[in-house]
Amino acid sequence: MIRFSTFATTLLVAALAAMPAGAQDGQRRLVGALGSTTVISEPGNYYLARDIEVAAGTAIRITASDVTLDLRGFRVAGPGSNSGRGIEIMGASGVRVMNGTVANFGFAVVVDTSASVVLRDLTIRGRGLAVTAPPPEVGIMIVQSRNTVVEDNRLYNVGLGIFVRGGMSWGNRIAGNTVTAGMNGLLGICYNPAPDDPMGPRGDLIEGNHISGFPTGIQMSAASGSNILRNNSVAYTMMAMELVNTTNTVENNTTVMLP
What is the reported pTM? Predict the structure, then answer.
């Protein structure tokens, strides 16, 4: 079941009426809620028909498996106060999210206890807010999830770019992303344990990313091992990579300290 506010449902019906017949054949379904959480709880192909914005909470929550969400170049926007979540994928598998902007959330995209999720061609923006208490503005967070692909995304002005957590996170691929700090960036890519789990992610491939402007480009906790870091370019202000666990493999990365 897909839940919309009354106002959003009115917009949905009107938009569907104006769409070509081929777009109303049940193969693609419109997501266009305004001001409240849209929950996608059935498999299918979904897309945005306009920009959406929320003042608090989560904008879009996906709880069904086998979902494709195409933002179609539109924007999902939050309150800009280091709060709320833009797109949240919870307990699902076979989910794809692509082709749009997620801006001004505490957590722009969250993948939680899920599998085989693909995040591709997203522009993720923070406000560059000062970090008064953890966590900072986070672009993409992966928690206890496996076989996740985070590829060809652009993250800017976030405190923490890509955050992977928990021992049940493994076999993920973080590739081809551009992660750029603003005034208050802390970490480009970070690997840590999760709450109530002392183990860190393992068996991931972090490849071909460009990380720039953070004090530390890539940081992995002592519990995060057996990951492969290859062909990344890191322009840092204090430390390129902080890798405590010696079981991680580091190959052909290019690093430079910024003035």
Answer: 0.89
